Amino acid sequence: MSTERRTLNIGVISLGWMGRLHARSYLAVAQYFTELPVRVVLHTAADPDEGGRNYAYEALGFKNAVSDYKELLANPEIDAVSICSPNFLHHEIAMAAIAAGKPFWIEKPMGRGAAESQEIATRASQAGLVTSVGFNYRHVPAIAEARRLVRAGEIGTINNVRVSFKADYSADPLGALTWRFKKELAGSGVLGDLMSHGFDLAQFIVGKLDAVTATNGIFIQQRPLPTSGAASHFSQGVDSAPKGEVENEDYTAVLGRFESGAIGVFESSRVAVGPRAEYIIEVYGSKGSLRWNFHRLNELELADSHDGYRTIMASPAYGEFSRFQPGAGTSMGFDDLKTIEAYLYLRSILEDKQYAPSVGDGWAAAEIADAALESAESGHWVDIKQVDAPTTYDR
């Protein structure tokens, strides 16, 4: 890797929670990945909301803030962009970034379904653009060790996998009917929002899925119409407000087959009472098993045929842990995972080689979600369409 530092002018589109996290993550790369020969400049933020633009200037230190993302993309000084807008704008903005020749880091779900995701991935690949998709749970050091153990055959032949992504962010029936509950604006519900992470983790650790059967449920049928400005998971309505119909799934249960012959069980809910952000993956092999829970991000449970489970604390030997903490027992957090993601994206740009999760990976997760939706309607097993854009699952 060259030691001469290259300046990259960054543009961030949409300065909500995730856009602000992207901006902070870019800045953090210089602190944690000091060998990366890059000088990051937060050049321009784009947000139609004046509060977002002011935050970009005053808190994050952006040089410029504009209301229209098209102005950002048209600026020849911008070298790379982050797309952190609501789902219904992902495709539009990604296609505009591709047309402008800008590498982009986009949050998941990449499109409102497999069709939009395919177009993004295909066009970006044809343009030769480096990309990144926000599959941040891949970057947990304990997950890095889990993947190593599985891929090295240390727990034997994989027989079955269980993935559970449950959260309570929509458990309150008075949660407002924001765009997230509308098919036209969000696409799928919990399949795209949470389970896309689960599908990605399973394929990242174990290998590709090739077929699924599924059932879905909408447990809170109606929600209060939102007040002006309500946009987040946590926006609240009032009981006396007019109500509208929830259009996409609160819950999904998916049974899957991996190409290897292993069986996968996937479950996800956005209305579970109890789990706050309980994201679990368990992998069972012929010689042992392992399990990880985001609630205990820095721990990996490992079992063999003799002693049952033992808990291993993440340490500098796992993934990028040593960048953040000097020894086991001192914890990393969620924001650190996005810093690793920012590093992989910037390194991908500098070396013109895909290190970050790619748009091909985003498309692959969307194809699984679409197959699960089709299965839930038909009641049949559905083969998953395999993508023909580059992925990083076997990197």
Automatic annotation (TrEMBL):
Domain (Gfo/Idh/MocA-like oxidoreductase N-terminal): residue spans on this chain: 8-135
Listed GO MF terms: nucleotide binding; oxidoreductase activity
Domain of life: Bacteria
Pfam families (UniProt xref): GFO_IDH_MocA, GFO_IDH_MocA_C3
Keywords, ordered alphabetically: Oxidoreductase
UniProt entry tagged with the keyword Oxidoreductase: yes
Domain GFO/IDH/MocA-like oxidoreductase, first and last residues per copy: 144-291
InterPro entries hit by this protein: Gfo/Idh/MocA-like_OxRdtase_N (IPR000683), Gfo/Idh/MocA_oxidrdct_glycsds (IPR050463), GFO_IDH_MocA-like_dom (IPR055170), NAD(P)-bd_dom_sf (IPR036291)
PANTHER family hit by this protein: BCDNA.GH03377
Identification of the protein by name: Myo-inositol 2-dehydrogenase
Organism expressing this protein natively: Corynebacterium stationis
Classification of source organism: Bacteria, Bacillati, Actinomycetota, Actinomycetes, Mycobacteriales
